[in-house]
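WARN retry 2 of 3 for item q-0093 after timeout on previous attempt; input resubmitted unchanged.
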Amino acid sequence: MPPVTFSPEKLAELLNMLSDQKAELAAIKASMVEANKAKMAKPAPVAVAGTASGEASGRSQKTDKALANQLATIKAFKAKGFGVVQPHIDVLTFNKWVALGFRPVEGSKSLKINNLRLFQKSQVRPITAAEKKANAKQQAAAVARHEGKATASGKPGNVTQLNPQ
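OK item q-0093 returned
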């Protein structure tokens, strides 16, 4: 075995250097996190193909398909007499409206644009407290059935284990 050439002083020096590097990396990470938070705080400008900002970057920030979907949405809703609409703001799918606390008015029809069924703001109404309560109860019953537990009626769920242990 070769003799040990590492002294306690050298070891202490190495540990101090490592702790200094660790602190420096933590400071760099914190500054990067703050810079990313600042970037995320302000929305990115939407560049439409053919505009100056889209040409300056060499490409648009939205895909051609997304732009085509937005234009088709605007055109379809305008043709049905809804006036000026803004996709992703006042034209959303059923599930997006429900997530925002709204529900399409009974009897209103969605417009199918490509593979999406869309509703406009004038076609929805707020979800009532009674509906929220009923939905929560229905979801709890569905989870219980899925997990194989007894439901509120006392009946067991319809899930059968393949490998009971």
